[in-house]
Amino acid sequence: QVQLVESGGGLVQAGGSLRLSCVASGRTFSTYAVNWFRQAPGKEREFVAIISQNGISTNYAEFAKGRFTVSRDNGKNTAYLQMNNLKAEDTAVYYCNQYLSWGQGTQVTVSS
Q1: Residue 70's closest CA among 32, 109, 30, 36?
Q2: pLDDT in tens, 93-111
Q3: Bridge partners of 19?
Q4: How many whole angstroms separate alpha carbon 86 and alpha carbon 103?
Q5: Neighbours of 74 (CB within 10 A)
Q6: What DSSP line would sit under 48-76, residue for residue?
Q7: In 3-state terms, what secondary structure has residue 4?
Q8: pLDDT tens digit string along 19-77?
Q9: Count of H helices and E strands in the chain?
């Protein structure tokens, strides 16, 4: 089973940017789409974005459109989530997911 490791989270001021990375182990990374989810304290985990196996197709939650960009590099077994114009309400633990595998999450905190 693929193992996923997220990184790139941190503390940023409102209006700032972060780029999250999700590195996958194994040989099947290019076989599956990659999803990004997030979970804020006291809230359910919610969908953020998805990118297709070849990176051509993407889709975003409404709150992410125009601010977040998902991408991937299959040669590096890595997916990315570029987040711009961050808001306090973007504070959450961000997870990447591929098929049945989940990463441990990376904390994003946006100060207002």
Answers
A1: 36
A2: 999 999 999 999 999 999 9
A3: 82
A4: 22
A5: 14
A6: EEEE-TTS--EEE-TTTTTTEEEEEEGGG
A7: strand
A8: 999 999 988 899 999 999 999 999 999 999 999 999 999 999 999 999 999 999 999 99
A9: 0, 11
